[in-house]
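Re: that chain you flagged

S.,

Sorry for the slow reply, it's been a week of failed gels. I finally had a moment to sit down with the sequence you sent. For the record, here it is as I used it:
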Amino acid sequence: MSEYIPSYFIDTSLSEHRWICRLCSDKIKKQQLPSRALLNKLEVCQIPSELKKLNNLEKHLIALRLPFMKILNLTSGKVSSRLAQKGTKGPLHCVPSDVQDT
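Prediction finished late last night. Pasting the structure tokens below so you have them in one place:
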């Protein structure tokens, strides 16, 4: 882990600022790899074209987990509910789905 951290800082120019979140900074100070690091292969990969074409029902049929939650509009009534920023309230339940049968 220690060989990756210096290379991150050496690559920067004097005019470039790089920020590290508190969670990652604490882990780096302890000489540990942060759990959200790219080295843990947590980067977002490209979505296959077959999955991009699915409608909402098809996405739910192949989902490994089905979330159940109460979704609220976070903005006032001036904005259309379709365009409003959303948020959740109350418990969130993720139910496993058996995709072999679908």
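What I noticed first: The first strand starts at residue 65 and ends at 73.

Talk soon,
D.
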